[in-house]
Every structure is written in C-alpha cells, then in structure tokens.
Amino acid sequence: MVGKEDPPMGKESANTVAGSENHKTARLAILELANMISVPMSLNAVVRLKIADAIWQGGSNFPLSASEILARLVPSGGDADNLERILRMLTSYGVFEEHLNPNSSDRRYSLTDVGKTLVTDSDGLSYASYVLQHHQDALMRAWPRVHEAAIDATTEPFVRANGEAAYSYYGKNEEMNLLMQRAMAGVSVPFMKAVLDGYDGFGGVEKLVDVGGSAGDCLRMILQKHPHIKEGINFDLPEVVARAPSIPGVTHVGGDMFKSVPTGDAIFMKWVLSTWTDDECKMILENCCKSLPAGGKLIACEPTVPEKTDDSHRTRALLANDIFIMTIYSAKSKQRTEDEFRQLGLSVGFSGMRSFHVDYFYCVLEFQK
Questions:
Q1: Domains of the chain, CATH where assigned
Q2: In sequence order, what E strands does the chain have?
Q3: Tens-digit pLDDT profile for residues 145-204
Q4: Which candidate, 4, 97, 148, 225, has a CA 20 to 30 Å from the CA of 173?
Q5: Model pTM above 0.70
C-alpha cells in the first residue's frame, strides 16, 4: 500500500534513472571521441584506393558492393569484407549512402554530396589531395605532441617531431610540395567559384596582386571572370613561383611578404593570415597597406571562427582547422573572429573592414585604405 511518504521516493527514483541514462550517453560519447581517429584514417584509405572515382564512373554513381568496387581497382580482388567495414563507418558520417537488399545481406554504396567532393573533375582536381596532404608521415608524427603546445608555445609540435618548420620542410621535399599545391588547387577552385558568384569587389581594378598565390589558380579564375583587370601579379616565394605555369595576363614574382608586397590597385590573398601570429599578421597587413593607393583595398579570404562555441558542422570544422594550424604551422598562429581581423587591420592603417559570407568555411574580408 502506497503511503504519503512514497511520492518523494518515486521522484528520487525517476531522477536516478534519468541520471543513469545521462551517464550511458556520456560514456558512449567519450568512446566515440576516443576512437575518432578511425574517421580520418578511413577517409585517407578510400582516397588512396580511389573509391569515389570507382563509384562515380563519369556520373552514374550506381550503387556498388564492396567486392564490385574492388573489382574495378584491385586485380587480385582484395578483401571485400574489410572494405565494407570502412564503407559502413564512413556511411555513418555521411560520405556514402548505403543501399540494403531486403531479401539478402547484400550492401551497396553510392556517393553522397560529401563523397562527391572526392571525385576527380575534368581538371584533375578534387578534395582528395587535401585529405592526403593532412595525413602525410611528417604531419602524423606531430599529432601525439599536441599537448606540448599547451605547455610551451615557443615551438610547435611539427618542429618538435621533425626538427624544422613545416614550410621549410615542404620546400625540401618535392613530393610534399606538389601534393600541397594539388590540395590547395582542389580546395581553391570551388571556393573561388563561390567568391566570383557572390562578391563584386573587383570592379574598377586594373592591377591585382595575389599574395601567396602559389601556382596562380585563383588569379587565373579572377582574370577570366573580370577581363577588365589588365595585369595580374602572382606573388609568392621564389621557389614556389619558379614552378608556376604560364598564365595569360599574369606575371609571377618571387619575394617575401614580410619585407614588401608588389604595388597594385587591389591585393588579394586566400588563407594566408590564419597561419601566422598576430605580430606576423600585422607585418603582412602593413606591407599590403603600404603598397595600395588611397582608396585601394585588400581582399583577404580567411576562415573566421564564431564568437560563441556550438556543435554545428561549421564551428567544428573551423575549430578543428585551428588545432591543425597550431600543431603544424605555428603554436601561436590561429584562426580569428571577424572583429579580431578588423582590429588587426585598423592597427596598421586600414580605415575599415567589410565582411562577405559567400562560403560556410571562408569569409571574404575587404580592408579599405
């Protein structure tokens, strides 16, 4: 028989059950986080195996079983069971779509929109090289030392693991340098299409300088879209522009952006400022400001982190990239909020900054002189 004292006990019992469910969820979450390395390493595996191209087949994207995929890639047939394990795991992260046969245990896979970013396009580009670039041996050696950046920020984990800075390390390794160029081209092309469709700040520019332009892919696309630009200057390190291809209307110039920047009506840069410290950013921005005429502009495309942290895909992608920068390039370089970029620009002589959101990852920051 239930007495008057029983309701509080029942309430306490319900809270205990709820607490137990929360603990179960928490334990599940930490197990997922602890095993998270399986995600990028499996992604690296499907890129190396060229799984996306095998499924895509010129646009058919017809669902294939693991054994059918391997038959297109590996003469010996490979191990379909192990490939299916990889495909299932990446399906749970939205890279593939799984198609189940209700009358058998047969599983087939096609590409989602995420998976399609790994398909090689007509220019030989995709996000696949970006994936591979992140998982090279020299970079992987740095990751177990991330905690050291919190103890001593004078040396980034990459240097601790490899004995020298990433940029100089890449410069001495032809294969790594070429992979970096392919990775940046694969990321740049779709982003630049978004910029050229959604940003109209190139009007009236006759001479455009691309600082850190690598092979000149961005400048080539800008000049194709805006033929009124009479001259393009692709400015990067001498060893980088030495390998750059000939592009109509573009002059490749080698130099050091920390010393000076070529003059122009406008200056463009993409993903340059985020890999440097505040003091280094000020040097770059100041040299850009000096090279611009009154009324000129610096058009900087950079990831910008939100003021408030949340669990959205955008915030996670940006903050994960921030840890990559801290680990590989400089322990004190970082991604910044829009206001932090604005304050850096004002500190070196720019009169203001406008932001344009044409992409979920990058933001176009227009600094006015």
A1: 39-117 (1.10.10.10), 186-368 (3.40.50.150)
A2: 96-100, 107-111, 207-211, 231-236, 250-254, 266-270, 297-303, 352-356, 362-368
A3: 999 999 999 999 999 999 999 988 988 888 998 898 889 888 888 889 999 999 999 999
A4: 148
A5: yes
